[in-house]
Amino acid sequence: MRRVLVANRGEIACRVIRGCRELGLATVAVYSEPDANAPHVRLADEAVALGPATPAESYLNAKKIIAAARSSRADAIHPGYGFLSENGDFAAAVEEAGLIFIGPCAETIRQMGDKAAAKTLMQAADVPVIPGQDGIVEDNFATVAEKIGFPLLVKAAAGGGGKGMRVVEDADGLEAAVEAARHEAEAAFGDGRLLLERYINRPRHIEVQILADNEGHTVHLGERECSVQRRHQKVIEEAPSPAITPELREQMGAVAVAAAKAVGYHNAGTVEFLFKDGEFWFLEMNTRLQVEHGVTELAYGVDLVKWQLRIAAGEPLTLRQEDIAPRGHAIECRVYAEDPARNFLPSPGRIRRLREPAGPGIRVDSGIVEGQEIGSDYDPLIAKLLVHDATRADALDRMVQALRDYVILGPTTNIAHLEALLRHDAFRAGELDTHFIETHFADWAPRALPLEALVTAGATRSGSGRPPPTTAGRDPWSPWGGQSGWRQGV
Length: 490
Fold this sequence. Notes:
disordered C terminus; D-amino Acid Aminotransferase, Chain A, domain 1; 490 residues; globular; 5-stranded parallel sheet; alpha+beta; 3 domains; Rossmann fold
């Protein structure tokens, strides 16, 4: 393996490209029209245009991506996360084209992508699963629901990300929930099949990172706490979890390894669980690198991206389970271009000013630069802020200060909301569940912008509602580029 095409965009594309470069591998970026000058395009050794912004014509177009790999002489494809990363047909097409797919095999992706099939496989491997109907429910929903009991969860058999899911409190709401979940699942995944299972109220969301080589040597790298979510999507993650004891860590890790071996897993993956009152149940397996992989890297001192590349190249896994233990505490905050005060509505716009926090124990996985336009065609995640320190309390303090130092002017972001979450007494006490935000922050409103941000904005715009005239190539927002009467202090 000498040349890797990264079939993604944003911060994950930058992260993978840097990992490749550190291992001496050449890189190829792909990009849609609005991403022509994006950081991942500049960072790669070569870049290939895919087409318009629409994902179906760019980052979701498997034929274009494989053609880009061939034209650029890449011999491997890294899918990142999202888009085609958990598409078994794409993985198979990559392999059929004679290229290396940096991830598990196509059959494993297909098995774990179907929640009904995954649940059956996990039961056979003695992995605890959420009680419910075995297999797809095609009709007689009322009869199955009565057997399971209320409250219950209607959820799509394919896909994830909270789409095609409805909580049903009683029999009166079942029919409407089934129709809504089926419609949403068909629109999102092209697959309207549904499952019914017991609803676990206010659980924690705990996931276990695994690594496996091509010879079956498999290890786990502890758990991540992912309970703080909005719309079933994670916002803050940390490792280790404040709720998991060393004994539970060993038990959950062993179950995750058993789950991986049951499907012949290789490369990096994640086994997700719901956890409550000392019990845990299999939720799903993510057959890719997770958005939140960085907290595991910081807490365990392991570079997951490099191990993905090494395993794909046929190298054996040299990590031993007895040597793997968390060192200190890591936290990740997902920075979104969205407005938490307006039900997390996406907030596109141009990044007028950007200042990222820096210092000991601080890491920013970013896919943005100053002046970049944040559009509405893709997920609003624009960066991940990570910190590491000796204890959870110290890491929380470091993260709060890092968020205060983070300046993004232009699109509305969730930075202030993240700080409020971290400062809440229940969060600091580790009293978390998947309803944390709606319980404690249903009516949250941001404070006024920091004085520093207002001064920066005022000085930058020179009191004008539009950018000053400039010569070609200059920054239109620079105070040096203006031709008005305003001058920098002399």
